[in-house]
Write a structure and sequence with these properties.
The protein is α/β, with parallel strands linked by helices and 235 residues long. It contains 6 helices and 7 strands. It has helices spanning 2-25, 36-47, 64-76, 88-98, 107-126, 169-178; strands at 28-31, 52-57, 81-84, 131-133, 150-153, 158-161, 231-233. Strands 3-2-1-4-6-5-7 form a 7-stranded mixed beta sheet. A hairpin with a 4-residue loop joins strand 5 (150-153) and strand 6. The longest helix has 24 residues, at 2-25. 35% of the residues are buried. The mean pLDDT is 91.
Length: 235
């Protein structure tokens, strides 16, 4: 009973944060990576009919399971999911110079790939918006321990809101099960964090939940450039 009440309270807090964000910073966009956390937000935004635009970035290297979920979201929810793609000329130039898997060779090349496939499309997706919503949680990575629920994103010149910041892994999955929310089937195969197929692997029991992302790099480097530290905390 206490667990259900705790989840209910957390849901109410998220809806409140989203509602306030729409009121204060419209137009608002939700960057939906289709991970477990983002499916919680997808369901809440649609269920409560919040005026938040929703988009995903198709990097061209996503797992088939992610594409399957992308289609399921389109079919199930009334809130449209807009898809943004990388600039094809930039992708072609990168591959011509570094090879299709050049990102394994150095952090610089990996981040350059992420910039082309994620950061540049993100900027186009956020154009004209005053705030963007993410599914970031504090316990996900060492790079996220100092984040706030609401910050000013200097890089993108808008408000950045992380309404699930204090949610635990169990909170996320309690919500998904309670409301029968669809999720990426790779989660059932020990993929807690899912990105591009060549940069994501399953983890073993006891490993950090982000250890399957860019597993050849050290933890302090495990961001793709979408979530920088160039923010000013407001709450």
């Amino acid at each position: 009973m206490a667990e259900n009440e705790d989840l209910t309270q957390k849901i109410a807090e998220v809806v409140s944060v989203l509602t306030e964000t729409v009121h204060d910073y419209a137009p608002v966009a939700f960057a939906n990576s289709l991970g477990a956390e983002d499916m919680v937000l997808t369901d809440l935004i649609d269920r409560h009919k919040l005026d938040v635009e929703m988009f995903s970035l198709d990097t061209g290297r996503l797992p088939q399971e992610t594409y399957d979920l992308m289609q399921t979201v389109r079919d199930r929810y009334q809130t449209p999911l807009r898809i943004y793609f990388p600039n094809v000329k930039q992708v072609e130039a990168y591959v011509a110079k570094n090879g299709v898997n050049g990102f394994y060779e150095s952090i610089e090349l990996r981040k350059a790939c992420c910039h082309i496939r994620k950061v540049e499309p993100l900027r186009r997706a956020l154009y004209g918006k005053r705030a963007w919503v993410t599914g970031i949680r504090r316990e996900q990575a060492a790079t996220r321990v100092d984040l706030k629920v609401s910050t000013y994103d200097i890089e993108n010149r808008m408000q950045k809101v992380n309404p699930l910041l204090e949610w635990t892994h169990d909170d996320v999955w309690d919500y998904l099960r309670k409301y029968e929310v669809p999720y990426n089937k790779l989660h059932d195969h020990f993929y807690p964090s899912i990105g591009c197929a060549p940069c994501t692997r399953a983890i073993t029991p006891g490993e950090d939940i982000r250890s399957g992302r860019w597993w050849w790099e050290t933890p302090e480097n495990k961001e793709c450039g979408l979530h920088t530290n160039n923010v000013i905390p407001l709450k």
